[in-house]
Amino acid sequence: MSMIAALSKIRPHTTSTLLHQKAPAKLLVALETTLTEQNTERSPTAYFAALLTTLDSSKNNPTFGEGDVLPAILYLLALVMPYVPPLVIRTNLTVLLSLLNPIFPALLPYAPPLRSQLTIFSSIIKALDIPLLDNPNLRQAFNLILDLTIDPRPKVRKRAADVIREVLSNVPPPLPVHPYAERVGEWMVSTLHVVNSGAGSFGKLTKDAEMTTGPEAGIHMVAMAKPIVAYLPRSVLPSLTSAMLPLPRLGNPYLSQSSYSLLATIVSDDSTSSDVTPLIRALLSSPPVKTDTTQTPAWLELLQAAFSTGLVSLDEKEAETVFKSIFEYLESSDTNIQKCSAQALSIFLSKVITNDMITAASLEKDQKKLTSAVGQIITHVRTSLHSLQFTRAIPQILTILAALVKTLRYRPVNKSITIPPTAAEIMVLDLIQYSGQLRIKKGFEHKEAVDQVLRTAIGVVGPEVILNASFFFIYLRTFDMLRERRSKGQEPNAYLLPLLSVPHPSPLSHFVNYFVPLSESMFNLQQTAEGAGRNSEAKMWEVLISQIWNGFVGYCHAPKDLPEVFDAKFAQLLSQILYSQPSLRPPILKALKVLVESHSWIESDIVTVEDGHRNLDHLRSQAESWFAVLFNVFGSVGQDGKGMVGDVISAWIKIAGDEAVVKMYHKVVSLFQQEIKNPSKPTSVKGTDAPNMLLMTQDLLILILPTLPRAECKELWDLCLSGVVIGHSESGVQKRGYRILTKLIEAGRLTSVLDVEDVITKLTSSSDTVTAPAKRDRITLIALLLPSVSSHSLHLVPVLIPEAVLATKEPAERTRGAAFELIVAMGHKMKEGGIVKRNRLDGMESDDAHEVQATVEEYVTMIAAGLVGATPHMISATITAISRLVFEFKDDIPTNMLDEILSTIFVFVTSANREIVKSALGFIKLSVHTLPVELVANHLKQLVPALLNWSGDHKNHFKVKVRHIFERMIRRFGWDTVYGCVGDSPEDKEKGKVLQNIKKRKDRAKRKKAKAEAEGEDDDEDEEPNKKTGDAFEDVLYGSESEIEDTDDETGPSRPSTKTQSFKGREKNREKGVRIRLDDDEPMDLLQGAADKVIAGGRDRRRKPGQEASHFKQDEATGRMIIEEEGKEGEDDNDDEDMAGGAYKESLTSVDGFTRGANGRVKFHKDTKKRRANDVDGDGDVDMEDANGPKKANKKRKKEIKLGQEFKAKHAGGDVKKGGVDPYAYLPLSQATKKKNGKQQRINVVGRR
Fold first, then answer.
1. What is the mean pLDDT of residues 352-364?
2. Which one, 654, 741, 832, 854, has the greatest CB density within 10 A?
3. CA gap 200, 194 in Å, rounded
4. Tens of pLDDT, residues 1096-1150
């Protein structure tokens, strides 16, 4: 909020009955009167000087009650100070401190002026530089502010804490921390020591508040420290941490939780912290009880933060003690405590357990009776999995087990073995097997936790070790082997298959020797099942095969045995699967990509750098063969699958080497040139689209391009720039050709060898052959070439303007966006300066053509030449382009030129062409929003009448657009100014009712909103603000919506459309929630059929059958409703006949225009409203003699009396009542058979079609 807006809210309170509101308002009015008399501008500096003078004159009578002058001065000074220039504050620092410091002690009992005083000092300190911050009077005031951060009054305390945070966060350059930060830290430490000692109280005495006690002061201190701890110097944090550790001993639960949370923040954010072992020991010396659901989670989170630093040095005995102490909290019944304990132990295992501890445990002879710290931890976890007291914490224990397995991935050195096993394989393999047994146990609920353990175990020891264990197996070839395993309580572990995709150390040979034969066996079983018609079984085998090959990627992370296993035979198998099994392509392609890319980040403790180079050399030797396979797959897949195959090709190209890439490039280029000369007939496989070889070769060139040498890049550039490519009749070829050129420019390899002027000349010569889909890439290419145009070759800009301008009217949104960017880019290029050689332009070779300086004004003149275009499309596009330029360069275009642009384009509003008018309306909308008020106001007399001519046109939404423009005008210029531009003729006044209607509806909306606010209700019609598109130009041009609903009758009352009402009703009901509909005479059955009883919204307001009929009297004999109406005296007795006749006449002249006879045939009426309207339009005038004179006696047809006519609404087309629809009318059958005058009546049903 600006200062002017803030002061405007104070002035109206001069008549307030509240003294603390009235005094500042009267003082403000008096100051502004003085400023007006002195002809002084109402600037922040002027207010500041006036308030200082007033404060100086009031210091001799320091009274701070309500209505006194001094609190009002401080209030206004606190409001003005943030807007005063810092230089002014620095200059008047001595005066400020001499006036404010003496009144500080007297202010302490008075909270409102004290808060104003704190705000003033915040503005003062933030405005000072380093030398001025050493002022002793200022430091004295700052120390007093520090004491107020633990004041017993909440508002004072909060304001003081905010001042400290604002000061410390505003660091004067070039210091890393504020000069007062160290003082704040020292004060906090000393205050915490006093709090911990329990001696004394804090806070200043007031009339209504007591002094702050020790625990309360600690709570206030922690609340103040939490947002400023990041601004304190690192040297203070250790002493601050030590001072906060005893706070939980004061016995205040909230203080304990807050202090633990603050300590966790300090430990986590301190990047230069020292060893946190003393902190951990201090925390473990006073642990909270297990049942404390408030303090215990905070204590555990603090331990977790301490472990996360990694700066913990515990010996084996201490590590074991820490683990067991935290592990005991898993016995708690609170789930949050269990989760926090598991997270803390997981971090402990990953950060505290060292490789030396693991090595010591792995060297123990009896692995069943481990005595080391790691061994005791493993034993503790093993025991807890079987213990009854930890039954509720099984998921958390499994989480800890997963962290333990991950920690034991270290391989202890064993000189007798080349690749020693991991410590997890040595010590916890039995726990991994036991977790697998838990997963298949009936009724076990925590399978996700077990899967996490197994996934971690596979990533650490590999699936080969897991499957070689006695418990785990996936598939057995004979039924006897399966029966033997089941006799031991073991079942196939197919759930391991989805877990194989994680990176693991198992060799690639394990997949080839174990899973490839397994997949072949399963494929045979699938074929057998399909042949026997067992579709469910076949689907099962298909899923298992898919899971096996999805796990192939886990073996491809830099395998050590790659050269030996990834031979021609296995490569041929993968190729066959890629060709014949589309469902298995994604996992194999992903594996081939990982196989190449994983060697760039070798993190395995098995594969060395030398092994990585050897693997890459082997893959490089197979690259040419794989390119042939991948190119064939690339051509056979659909458009959705090309991206995945293209990623694999790009990965293999990076390792192929220049020679292989060049060889492959020449093959693709030769194929591309051959296809251009002699296009091959596309052949397709059944069920797939036919591949286009020409487009496929271009896509491959795009993939090869990033690694292409410079010479080949130049060759490819010349090929794609030729008319054979960018002038090709097929749009896809053009589009890809421009895309290749764009990528070559982006690669930066041809910048120094290209003649940009020649390139642009070639591009402009081919503009006539550009297809619509290729325009965006073409414009993007031109935009990339534009920065390379020299300042002496700006005659190219006018050549590009027509194409860029016309592209702004393209149907494709991205093409239009690229065109606008090009227009703006050319404007910036012209703004940079240069020379435009007009004699180099076509049609301007005459002697009088000369060189002109490149400016934005010259560029706008070039664009504006399109306003005299031969087609409305060109004129419309030019207006749109000028709109974009005016929005972008409004500060660079001279005012006289803007005025000329407005005068010119406003004329087009009167055009008869709708396309031109539509663009002109957009320009007007932008002008009203963006351009200066004075500039647009000069043209309102011309603009308003022209807009009023389109205010009633519904086509192209002109009516809505014009109304939006008028709403903007009224908001910016005022209603009187806009309405004053309406002409004086009766026709103009009639059109001007649009403006009156807008004003009336806006006033009505304001009254409604004010009434809702006065009643304390929310305005249901308030809508969310318009969403921004991210483009400021589009937000201005298209993003604005009307503030009032549309209506067909501009002079009548505005009513929202039915669609809008129903939408708002649904939203309102959705906010109210879901309720159950109650039927009066039917009991609610909550077990069956209750779904249709649940409705959204409030009470059920639907009409029930017979609801309206219950309000009428009934004839006891017939059951007919008796409707009593108050009629006039002397009314004829044949009212029923007249009513029936009127209904018959209405049916004959209705919009429907037909009835059905007794046999169901349609009979069209001749005397309908539509036909009468056509007759009037055709004849021009109404024949008065036919209208008023005697008519021929036509033969009257017998009128049909419609059954239920007496219930038909008089002023509507059906049974429509005000406030709803009455769909039911009860009539006895006797009425249908009743005779009148001795004759049977012909009857029909109302509304029958």
1. 88
2. 741
3. 8
4. 444 444 444 455 555 556 666 555 666 655 444 444 444 444 444 444 444 444 5
Q: Is beta strand 1201-1203 parallel, antiparallel or unpaired with respect to 1243-1245?
A: parallel
pLDDT of 1189 reads 44
Task: State the Cα torsion 849-852-857-858 to the nearest 10°.
Answer: 40
Residue 487, class by beta-carbon neighbours within 10 Å (0-12 exposed, 13-18 middle, 19+ buried)?
exposed
What are the residues whose beta carbons fall under 8 Å from the beta carbon of 425, sequence distance 6 or more?
461, 465
128 three-class SS: coil
Task: Say how many CA atoms lie within 13 Å of 664 toward its Cβ.
Answer: 30
Output the CA–CA distances (angstroms, integers) from residue 1144 to 1166, 1214, 1222, 1229, in the order listed.
14, 14, 22, 22
Q: What angle do helix axes 658-677 and 693-704 make, rounded to 10 degrees?
A: 150
For 2-63, the three-class secondary structure string (H helix, E strand, C coil) is CHHHHHHCCHHHHHCCCHHHHHHHHHHHHHHHHHHHCCCCCCHHHHHHHHHHHHHHHCCCCC
Look at the chain and count its residues: 1249
Query: What are the start-end ranges of the E strands in 791-909?
Result: 835-837, 851-853
Evaluate whether 531 touches 584 at the Cβ level (below 8 Å): no
**1126 exposure class (CB count in 10 Å sphere: 0-12, 13-18, 19+):** exposed
Please name the residue that has the structure tokens 């803390």: 344
Q: Which residue has the tokens 């806009």?
A: 978
Q: What is the mean pLDDT of residues 323-331?
A: 93
Parallel, antiparallel or unpaired: strands 1216-1217 and 1201-1203: unpaired
From residue 687, how far is each of 638, 683, 696 by CA, in Å? Answer: 11, 12, 19
Nearest 5°: phi and psi at 992?
-70, -10
- Cβ neighbours, 10 Å, residue 913: 15
Tens of pLDDT, residue by residue over 150-190, are: 988 999 999 999 999 999 999 998 888 999 999 999 999 99
d(CA 951, CA 960): 8
